[in-house]
Amino acid sequence: MEISSTQIWIIVGVVMLIAELLSVSFVFAFIGVGAFVTALLTWIGVLPMINAQLFCFSVVSVLSLFAFRKPLQALTKKSSDKSMEYSEYVGDKAMVVIDIPADGEGKVFYRGTEWIALSKSHERIHKGKSVVIQELDGIRLIVAE
């Protein structure tokens, strides 16, 4: 079975979209767009030669990256900032499952999952204690007794 150039570009595009889902960097998606556009143009016969395909892939990937990456990042940043600002976690209670050292990380059990936790009071909090979530710092919960 021989694989056509169109099929190769589609495979590259799918791999790039999967990579984007794993990385969330807004880079691989645009490389995938370049691969899909190249696959389409190859399929309809506009790009029969590999050097033309590579040129199209490079140009479309770079142009789409520069044109759309920042607006998409800004759009997702605004929505994530709002969700952090009005966090539903703040004020809820969690249970310490691994001691939280004064200047280190421990773990708490909250909503069926273990979370990395830091002490807001900068005092050691022992396993088994109930804590109140004060804020979120990325994927870490800042807690106090």
UniProtKB/TrEMBL annotation:
Membrane topology: Multi-pass membrane protein
Entry's Gene Ontology BP terms: proteolysis
GO CC terms: plasma membrane
Cell location: Membrane
A matching Pfam family: NfeD
Keyword Membrane attached: yes
Taxonomy, superkingdom: Bacteria
Record field: transmembrane: 12-44, 50-68
Record keywords, A-Z: Hydrolase, Membrane, Protease, Transmembrane, Transmembrane helix
GO molecular function, one term: peptidase activity
Sequence ranges assigned to domain NfeD-like C-terminal in this UniProt record: 87-144
PANTHER family xref list: INNER MEMBRANE PROTEIN YBBJ
Protein name: Membrane protein implicated in regulation of membrane protease activity
Organism the protein comes from: Runella defluvii
